[in-house]
Design brief:
The chain is mainly α. The protein has four helices and no strands.
Length: 64
């Protein structure tokens, strides 16, 4: 897990990882597994917090 993500909640870590990956590679190119790996989270936690990759994208927009 990235050092910057260590002190964040799982939900926040997922948001931060997804935002970075979407920015770097584009929404379509990024997988849920990549997001989970970067966030140091379980793949199922993405479904738990956001229901889907699209739900995760909506949450990123809402944060901004």
């Amino acid at each position: 897990m990235d050092a910057a993500l260590e002190n964040r909640t799982t939900r926040d870590a997922i948001l931060e990882a997804a935002e970075a990956l979407f920015s770097e590679h584009g929404f379509k190119a990024v997988t849920i597994r990549e997001i989970a790996r970067r966030a140091g989270a379980n793949v199922a936690s993405i479904s738990y917090y956001f229901q889907s990759k699209e739900g995760l994208l909506r949450a990123i927009y809402e944060e901004h």
